[in-house]
Structures are given as structure tokens and as C-alpha cells.
Amino acid sequence: MSSHTLISARARPLMLGGLLLGLAGCGGDDATTDSSGLVSWPDKRSTGAEPGNAAPNFALQTADSTRLELAALTGSQPLVVNFLATWCANCMEEMDILVDLHESGVQVLGVNLREKADTVTSLIERTAARFPILLDSTGKVTRAYKVVNLPATVVLDAQGRISSVTRGPISAAGIREAVAAAGGE
């Protein structure tokens, strides 16, 4: 007798159907807008997660329920988008750099991965962050940028194109250099 578990011929179709049903929930990204926060650019441009591509556009809420759209923040100067979570030690270590960057006049936007609004509110109070931190409750926006580890920082030029991507912690000098390369000060 084999030590492998045998699946009856009647159970196989049920298991396959359940697997397909589960995979169907993974869905595609072809909708103009969806509950995940991903939205099309107003000019319907194509997007990608690599430097040179238009950044994936999204609209997410802050902890106080203010809805912000990435496209509305582009057009005048570079924008730093930082993907973070409070449980990520490196994310918390670089918050001072992001706060200083924002206070110097650079646009900074945080995207928090799958944490509750009250957790993000506490983070804002602890760090004195005055830049918006958006709630990516599904993780779909984070995945659209191909972020698999936190922190990750994306610098966009004024037109919303990705200028640089830093996977892992940033340094003050490195992020200022990336902003300058994107057309900032």
C-alpha cells in the first residue's frame, strides 16, 4: 500500500472547481476604477512599475477619510511615494528623513500597507509627519508598484513618470539626489 493519499475520482472535480473559484478571486487589473484604489489616469496613459513608465495611478483615503488621487498631486514638481507599515523597523527609521524632506518643500506621499486608520493616526502623531499617508487596505496599489518588501520608495517626476525606485531603506542624501534627478531641488 502506498503512503500517498489517494483522491477519489468523485472528489477531484470538486477540488478542481474549488481551486478555480479561489483563483478567480485574484482578478485582473483591467477595470477603470475598482475598490482596490487603482484608477486610470485622466488621459488614459498606460502605466508600469519601472523607471521611465507612467506610475500606476491610484485613489486612496487617509486615516481621516480624505480621498487623494495620485494624478492630482502631479504636474508641478517631483513626488516621493513611500510604501510603509508601522511593523516595519526600516520604515520607521526613515520617517525622520521623509518628514525633513517634506518640511523642505518636497511633495511626499506615504502609502501604508494593510493597517487600520487608528494605527496610521498614531504613527502620524508619534512622528509629526505632516504629509498624507494613504491606506492601501487591499495591498493592490502596493502590488501594482511591484513592492514585495518594505520599505520601498518611488520618485516620480512632475508628469507622473517613475524616475527612480529604491527597494529597502533610503538615506537622506540618496533621496535628495533622486528628487534632484527627477527635476526637483
Task: Write a structural description.
Mean pLDDT is 87; it is low at 1-9 and 11-33. The longest helix is centred in the first third of the chain and has 14 residues, at 11-24. The protein starts with 10 loop residues before the first helix and ends with a helix. It contains seven helices and seven strands. The protein has 185 residues and is α/β, with parallel strands linked by helices. It is globular. Helices cover 31% and strands 19% of the residues.
Largest sheet report: 7 strands, mixed
Structural class: alpha/beta
Low-confidence stretches: 1-9, 11-33
User: Based on DSSP secondary structure assignment, what is the total number of beta strands?
Assistant: 7
Judging by the overall fold, what is the CATH architecture?
Answer: 3-Layer(aba) Sandwich
User: CATH superfamily, please?
Assistant: Glutaredoxin
SSE run: HEEHEHHEHEHEEH
Total domain modules: 1
Net shape? globular
What number is the mean pLDDT?
87
* Cα-based radius of gyration, to the nearest Å: 20 Å
Q: What is the terminal separation in angstroms?
A: 73 Å
Key traits:
Glutaredoxin, 185 residues, seven-stranded mixed beta sheet, alpha/beta
Strand-helix topology:
Elements lengths: L10 H14 L34 E4 L4 E3 H4 L5 E6 L4 H5 L1 H9 L3 E7 L3 H11 L5 E4 L3 H5 L7 E5 L5 E6 L4 H10 L4
Parallel strand pairs: 3-4, 4-5
Antiparallel strand pairs: 1-2, 1-5, 3-6, 6-7
Offer a concise description of the structure.
The chain is of the alpha/beta class and 185 residues long. 31% of the residues lie in helices and 19% in strands. It has a single domain (29-181), classed as Glutaredoxin.
